[in-house]
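Late entry, written up from scratch paper. The run itself happened at the end of the previous shift, but nothing got recorded in the book at the time, so transcribing now.
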Amino acid sequence: MKIVIVGYGPAGASAAVTAKTLSPDIDVEIVSADRLPAYRKPGVTRAFRHRDDHGLEIDYWSPDSLTDRGIVLRQGLRVIGGDTQSHSLVATDVDGGDSPQETISYDRLILATGGEPLVPPVPGVDLNGVFTLRGLADAMRISEAAEGASTATVVGAGFSGLETAERLRNLGLEVHIVEAFRVLGRLLEPEMTDRLLARLPGDVAVHEDSPLKRLVGDSRVRAVDLGNETIDCDLVVLATGVRPSTTLARALGLEVGALGGIVVDEYMRTSSRDVYAAGDCVEMRDFLTGRPLLMPVGSTAARAGRQAASAALGKDRLYDDVLLRFQYDRIFGTEIVTVGESTAVAKSLGVEVSAHFLRDSAEFTDVALLTTPGGRLVGGQVISSRMASRVGIQLLNRVKIGSTLSEHPLPPFRHAALRSYLEHVLGPIE
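Output as recorded:
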């Protein structure tokens, strides 16, 4: 059997390694237009400082590691079409030239074509000094531009936008963050956003509820127009989200959903026999309702790639963590974790939830818990100086099994547990 994987991001690399691990004797081939090695998408802005992939490598997905496993990696080839009936693809060299088109045959196909930057439809986005950030090559270009800039505006306040703002500030630029809604508005409760804003450096200007109207400049960007406010700047990064990359899927005749992603089932099977898809290019299913949603998260893509490879090999196993979102980042010295549903996501899916808040001042930790009317824990958020990942894993485990907090209460915060022990030994502490 030969499995061909189109795409060398988290979903594609994970699928390749999983397939070869489960069935060492099969042929596995990755085809990618990108000539760069697989790297960590979260934190790609580190390249602002190093201008390379320093610290971003994923050793077990590196070209050498894949080769050692017997996986064929073909970079610099763009798949432009194919025929699912004959199980064949058509590829061409990304550099063009006189190289003829090549036909690649497969027994099973996994599409991991990722996503494309979502650029707001406003005037000026094509000016010099305006960038999108989707990968390492984009980060390197922004790094070069930052050397001659003094003020930067980051449009979009998701994880990627906040990371970008932090790195640009570390390079010595004055930084503005512009957000049409609020910071991490789809992932955090309003109260948690407020807690996060209180932790941001005072010299980072945040403009919430400020939709971008246009970018101002002749050939190069000079300012950002928000309608009621204009921000002078000489560098703009559009971190306004991604949309599924489905050009190849459409060329192959695969079903694409209303949200713009490839339609897949829980096994990552597409509408075409022997064709699977995973990662930012697909419409995932919400773990609670089964309704489609886009989930452009690297860790989710990797888990979906694992599922796609297993299914492509004819395995019946369903991994229970594929549909559950878990995001972690450390930005401006603050750890942020989001798990499962938020109020905003739940509302868009027609799910009624209530938010409950905990705070541990000693650990400088804030927690939001999202529960259904029946008390089931379906989501959570943690903001902390150093405890977010630990608490986040506790939340993830409870969301995964569908428990209530009465069935599986959270352990007490560390300082509370210590205080309880000391009071037990020494008596009440005033």
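Residues 298-312 form the longest helix (15 residues).
(Scratch paper discarded after transcription.)
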